[in-house]
């Protein structure tokens, strides 16, 4: 990363030179750690770190965050050199402001020192572990079911070598915590998965079983470890040189860990924290008994529509989500996806109208200051589309309803996986199942490609795979996209 010669670096010493409104809400280094966060990406820095800092400023508590990056050594080095400080720029067409966040108490690189991470999980001061490790980290089937057996995970669970995977770190940490009698703790998934708390509990239980964990430890986990579900929301694109330049401009110092985000943020959290938690509600989070309806709403009406925009936009050659939304007829198609398919597929949380929520989502996607790349949202489709689109389709079809617009999203993903834009430029497929998807999508005809994709049972559930009407709908869309490209397909559909 290029550093501007002459610009000094963000660190504790630089804080007093910052404009007052850009300074942290808490005095960095004065709050001791109570949280370990796994996954130090842009999303965590602009979401949970911001909520936590506000909660600390308003309600106090020993809830500093030790940020653990699984593999990103550069980021850990940068944050350490900046005294764990980074800035968040909040961007909209009308306004932009930048503030340094002081919630990180420390940073660690799991790949370099897994034992330190295990020791943290066994530290009685740590009572909450939050995770943003992306959808693909939750695949677990070391016993070799239908999922890919992950050799690193099997080794983590069956040997004494230092753990290299997220479930490996968690299992080793919980064993050490039990041995140290370090008290209750909550493990909080902040990834975009349905029932993410239950899913994490399942992952940990399976991993404990696979590792041959003694029953008293399993019982201790059952009684002393909370797995609250959450719905997390804020659009936070991967940082680019422009992000860093904007932060430098606002702060007058170089911040190599800067992130930029939209103004909107939401966090709905199930209140299951046996060791206590920060007063996140003071920062606007909603603590509740069941985040499920909120997760469904967000996954289907935001993330599903995001994926639709990403695949159709990328095929049409659009670099960003906001550019894609400006394609003729795309917003109309997304509104019909929302109103006719998404809204008809589930019961939203009390008091929420899915179509109104969808309008707000489209306005957020149109934020011109957030340059969210279509290719970033398009990645890992095999891990995202089940909860974003396939569940919508499954619920509609089970109720005997069509899923016309959701079928278009599947067709766009298949077309995307075929590897080129409408005008023949290459499209990379960044996906843990890229090979299988690419060879299925490359079948001779649209109907064969759809059949081959529907046969990928790691992605497509059997009731969807067997649905002849859906097969016909996706094939018809894929045929249109193949022969005419995105704009005429959209124009012909509305
Ligand atoms: C996006 C999400 O990259 C993606 O797949 O759909 O990261 C989205 O920006 C967030 O979930 C918004 O909260």
Walk me through the structure:
This protein has about 500 residues and is an alpha/beta fold. The protein folds into two domains: about 280 residues, NAD(P)-binding Rossmann-like Domain (Rossmann fold, 3-Layer(aba) Sandwich); about 200 residues, N-(1-d-carboxylethyl)-l-norvaline Dehydrogenase, domain 2 (Orthogonal Bundle). Helices cover about 45% and strands about 10% of the residues. It contains 21 helices and twelve strands. The strands form three sheets. The chain has a six-stranded parallel sheet with strand order 5-2-1-6-7-8, with helices on both faces. α6 packs across α7 and α16 packs across α20. The mean pLDDT is about 95. The chain binds D-mannonic acid. D-mannonic acid binds next to α10 and α14.
Proportion of beta-strand residues: 5-15%
The average pLDDT score comes to 95
Question: Going across the major beta sheet, what is the strand order?
Answer: 5-2-1-6-7-8
- Give the second-level CATH assignment, the architecture of the largest domain: 3-Layer(aba) Sandwich
CATH homologous superfamily of the largest domain, by name?
Answer: NAD(P)-binding Rossmann-like Domain
**Helix content bin:** 40-55%
- Counting copies of identical and different chains, the oligomeric state is single chain
Gap from first CA to last CA: 45 Å
Instruction: List the ions, cofactors and other small molecules found in this model.
Output: D-mannonic acid
Please give the CATH class of the largest domain: Alpha Beta
CATH topology group of the largest domain: Rossmann fold
Structural class by SSE content: alpha/beta
- State the total count of DSSP E strands: 12
